[in-house]
Amino acid sequence: MRDRLSIDPAHSSAQLLQRLRDTVPLTHCITNSVVTNFTANALLAIGASPAMVDIPGEAGMFAGIAGGLLVNLGTPAQEQREAAREAAVGAKAAGTPWVLDPVAAGVLPVRTAVALELASMGPTAIRGNASEILAVEGSGAGGRGVDASDSIESVAPAAVDLAQRTGAVVAVSGAVDLITDGRRIARIANGTPLLTLVTGGGCALGALIAAFLGAARDSGCDAFEAVVAAHVVYEVAAELAASPAGQSTAGRTPAVGPGTFAVRLIDALHAVTAADVSARAQVRLEDAPALAEVSA
Amino acid sequence: MRDRLSIDPAHSSAQLLQRLRDTVPLTHCITNSVVTNFTANALLAIGASPAMVDIPGEAGMFAGIAGGLLVNLGTPAQEQREAAREAAVGAKAAGTPWVLDPVAAGVLPVRTAVALELASMGPTAIRGNASEILAVEGSGAGGRGVDASDSIESVAPAAVDLAQRTGAVVAVSGAVDLITDGRRIARIANGTPLLTLVTGGGCALGALIAAFLGAARDSGCDAFEAVVAAHVVYEVAAELAASPAGQSTAGRTPAVGPGTFAVRLIDALHAVTAADVSARAQVRLEDAPALAEVSA
Amino acid sequence: MRDRLSIDPAHSSAQLLQRLRDTVPLTHCITNSVVTNFTANALLAIGASPAMVDIPGEAGMFAGIAGGLLVNLGTPAQEQREAAREAAVGAKAAGTPWVLDPVAAGVLPVRTAVALELASMGPTAIRGNASEILAVEGSGAGGRGVDASDSIESVAPAAVDLAQRTGAVVAVSGAVDLITDGRRIARIANGTPLLTLVTGGGCALGALIAAFLGAARDSGCDAFEAVVAAHVVYEVAAELAASPAGQSTAGRTPAVGPGTFAVRLIDALHAVTAADVSARAQVRLEDAPALAEVSA
User: Fold this and answer.
1) Half-sphere exposure of A217 (CA within 13 A, CB side)
2) Closest Cα in chain A to B32
3) Is B108 on the interface with C (CB under 8 A)?
4) pLDDT in tens, C174-208
5) What is the pTM of this model?
6) Is residue C40 less than 8 Å (CB to CB) from chain B?
7) Complex ipTM value
8) Which one of A218, A295, C99, C201 has the minimum C-beta count within 10 Å?
């Protein structure tokens, strides 16, 4: 058994970016009506092949031939909900890795029920903000209402628990992202506050996770590394987009407006190199059990 | 009772912009599939928090917790129509201000019926072009078909009548916008023809109205002032976006193409200041009865 | 009977662009959720008037008053499928020209059935990539599965056959586009590889075809010339967008990223002139029978 912390996330992220561009994973998206266009352009820019297939009768079989699948519950109309279930079944049967993004779970009843159902169907990864992860984790939150102000750190034990119970890699988005497979925790400090000013910034990341999971198949990298890679690459590209001259933007006022930033982000996803990723990745790794002891 | 004309729209618009940014109103959108992304980005840029919640079983309860609600009938699929009714009921019960944007009412039968139904459910504001307002006003138009070439001025009596019958603030978009609460009329001369070259330019304005109505709650400003403020702020931002050097663009050829303008508009909604609004607002106020006499 | 090859596509394309801007054809779109915004902005930029009307009860009557109609099957939810059938009937009854874009036909079962049904309902034009055209042609492909790597040239006989059987102008998109009405073939060498990095690049072209078909009514130009014109104008605009200084970009590395390119494409659709089109059009014409002999 290899050392849990022996992975080099900067290296594996750069490697998986290159592999994604070599293999052009077909990335099946079932996502919300606000972000379809931005999501598809982000996937094309990074080097994947997007396809929005979100009706019953098609989603199941397509999940079987896709390289990776995203199920995002942002605007879950009835046909999309049926398609999502069908796709989850199809992905499982075919071994296609898939991502659940339970947008606004815990706040809105219809999608919360669907999110809990889908979380039990074997997603490869679950991505959300702290409140959404708490809502999907459910019993761990002890029935209290979700709280949009929950911090990343306070949700860490729930994220580890959710990962251990579902077998999914769980990713919690925030100023510092937390990613865990129940054994390991990665904290990623890349990114820019401008991402919070573009609608679908997180939704597009969910799609990139699906693409990186597709790229990681038969690569020697596991799902944890793929989810970390998606975050690192996306957020390094965001840093490049936020900063006209390419310097770090941490802690400084953005030099571009949010409209311009969204356009530059697509450019940067296309331009970002494996060398950029290696040079800029800010990932900290630890064992999940250590955290469990601290929080007990 | 305060003087009907005593409001200072440049001042109240600037004030409400600041208040919106301080309070970040949760803005519930039920809108058409063409403009969801642009609308959400416009709301984020101005400082509001957008949420697209457009399925039955969720829209009603969410309208109750939102700061403001937009119901736009641009692509009214069946679930959206049900969600819109549910949201109107939920908004009324909770006192959430809401905006009806009856896109293409009068031309297309399904949405015309829904628009008339929703108009009778107590919207806080109704926004449309001249033809749409005539269609919703209905009896006032005397059964004649709507006419896309109806001028703003010719529709003024119908707008006043609609406002008086429904209790809504009625906003008619055009080169000069007309806004009335049935007692007062405001005419707003800000803006740029480039707005007509960006799809969803009017739809995003509808969403901003919902956000400004949310910001105006408990502010001392009324719904009329909030609707005026949304127009002034949006159109001042559009002027800044249309003009690379920031000069007035009135009557001159735009210096930017429509693709670039749309991006710059998002930037400008983020950058526009209360001082910009105070300095550039072009609002003319009068009593509605004066108009009624003139047009009688 | 006029000489089949006597048309001057550079001239007629420039002429139809001018006519489109003079007549502002109302362009009815039933299209997928990924590209609605980009499509509407492309139509506005070129000078048409877009309207997304995609629900049953409205689509049929609206197809009767529109100048041109697009039916794109990218995300064919149930209401859209019903609306598409209704619109095809309405268009036929009113003589409105219409375009079928059978996105992913041949790969996904629900849309493939709908595409075959719609193809038999008298579309004025059918636009797709090689695999999609083979799938719609159906019997010609002899039951073998579609192959995304099918080259434009290998699909030419099937395109001619499909045009002859349906009466539609058939357009096959690729590095060189092939357009045929069953008698003539045009090959168009304009464009830029950047178009493949923007989602909806082909879908927006489908909408422009509908607009150009609308502009061509009563113009003396036929549907074949209108479909050629839409391709030439769109791809000349794309060349201008891809090249900051306006030079040809053929065979060189693009100077702009895909996000910036998409914005510049909208700008260029607005700015492109009839003179640009005349000067840059790269169209080669031949008789279809000649091809049939070669391939027999």
Assistant:
1) 19
2) A33
3) yes
4) 999 999 999 999 999 999 999 999 999 999 999 99
5) 0.94
6) yes
7) 0.92
8) A218
Which of B44, B58, B263 shows the shortest C-beta gap to A199?
A: B44
Q: Are B257 and C41 in contact (CB under 8 A)?
A: no
Amino acid in position B47: G
The three-class DSSP label of residue B84 is helix
- DSSP 3-state assignment of C136? helix
Please report the pLDDT score of residue B291 as a whole number.
Answer: 59
Q: For chain B, what is the total number of helices (H) and then of strands (E)?
A: 12, 9
Residue type, A47: G
Task: List CB contacts (< 8 A) between C79 and chain B.
Answer: 77-78
Name the minimum distance, in Å, from the CA of B110 to any CA of chain C.
6
Please name the helix (run of DSSP H) or strand (run of DSSP E) that holds residue C180, with its range, or none. strand C177-180
Average pLDDT per 10 consecutive residues for chain A, totaling 296 residues = 67 98 98 97 98 98 98 98 98 98 96 97 97 84 44 87 97 96 97 96 97 97 98 98 65 76 98 98 88 51
Which residues from C are below 8 Å from A53, CB to CB?
A: 75, 104, 108
For residue A140, the SS3 value is: helix
Structure tokens at B252: 């001159």
CA distance B33 to B36: 6
The three-class DSSP label of residue B73 is coil
Q: With both helix axes pointing from N to C terminus, report the angle between C109-119 and C130-137 in degrees, rounded to the nearest 10.
A: 70
Contact A96, A63 (CB under 8 A): yes
- DSSP per-residue letters across C33-86: TTTHHHHHHHHHHHT-EEEE--STTTHHHHHHHSSEEEEE-SS--HHHHHHHHH
Q: Which residues of chain C have pLDDT under 70?
A: 1-6, 139-150, 244-254, 290-296
φ/ψ bin of A257: left (φ > 0), alpha (ψ from -120 to 50), beta (otherwise):
beta
Please give the angle made by the CA atoms of C38, C42 and C48, to the nearest 5 degrees: 135
Taking the C-alpha atoms of residue A66 and residue C9, their distance in angstroms, rounded to an integer, is 41
